[in-house]
Please model this.
Amino acid sequence: MSLHNLSEITTKKKKRVGRGPGSGKGKTAGRGMKGQKKRGKVRIGFEGGQLPLSKRLPFVRGKGFKGPQRKPFVLDLEKLNIFRSGSILTIEGLQEEGLVPKKVPSGVKILANGEINKKLTLEGIKVSKGAKEKIEAAGGKVL
Model:
């Protein structure tokens, strides 16, 4: 290792405020003119006596509330007709084909919308009762 091989060290110097008009941050030191925020500390979220936004919003109640992301990604049965007959389907296979997004927090569920005419085997995928009947009628399996 020698001096010409060393990577350049770049550190930004701390801005020295209140050091005269030539510094760019002189006189008011970047705080502007007058008011509580210019004179002292104001806690985060303080709105000058007005009811803060955090208190104006409704409560989120219940243990472990997560909202809409808990619902599984739904997929219609007819979209599975693009696969060859006899193939085994997993969530990863559906992601590779672009039918399901890469991140699915609560899994995938297949609904009985449309018809299927291929013999498919589904592994590790939630299936509605009607979709299961249609898959089994076409000669497939749900594991």
